[in-house]
Design a protein that fits this description.
GO terms for molecular function: DNA binding; DNA-binding transcription factor activity. This protein is mainly alpha-helical. It has one domain: Orthogonal Bundle (Arc Repressor Mutant, subunit A), CATH 1.10.10.10. The chain has six helices and three strands; from the N terminus they run H-H-E-H-H-E-E-H-H. Strand 2 and strand 3 form a beta hairpin. Helix 2 packs across helix 5. The longest helix has 22 residues. The chain starts with 11 loop residues before the first helix and ends with a helix.
Length: about 140
């Protein structure tokens, strides 16, 4: 009788992939429960962390398709989380900036991510969590 264990179950890449899938699932669950969109988080976090940007620059920065970003920005602007203004140096470009309401929403969304992380890491001790983060930082060069 064959074992149900995956052939790569003892490989780090497989385990990292599964942990990543689990973490993404938990973030989606927490965001959905709060009726917010994770795509909004990426936009708001980039604007808060890296500053205002032209729409095309922002799309490239967060790895979103430019036309998809326009839809997200329309939604975020309607919620008053971002503002778009014409670039005085090039009237065809729009500059996007986060608003005070967007900053507050971002803090609330951070809390959802922290809750998802806490749920994911619940089986680990505080020392194990710290060690895991240090090891992952070494792997990614951070």
């Amino acid at each position: 009788m064959k074992s149900s264990k995956h052939r790569l179950a003892d490989r780090v890449l497989w385990a990292l992939g599964r942990a990543s899938q689990q973490s993404q699932r938990l973030v989606r669950q927490h965001m959905a429960a709060a009726d917010v969109r994770s795509q909004h988080y990426h936009v708001l976090a980039s604007l808060a962390d890296d500053g205002e940007a032209a729409q095309a620059t922002l799309a490239d920065r967060i790895g979103f398709d430019r036309s998809d970003l326009v839809t997200l920005l329309d939604e975020l602007e309607e919620l008053e989380y971002v503002v778009r203004r014409t670039d005085p140096g090039d009237r065809r470009r729009k500059i996007v900036a986060i608003t005070e309401a967007g900053e507050k929403q971002l803090v609330a969304m951070d809390q959802l991510i922290f809750a998802a992380e806490s749920e994911l890491l619940e089986p680990l001790t505080a020392t194990e969590r710290k060690t895991l983060l240090q090891l992952l930082d070494r792997l990614t060069g951070d």
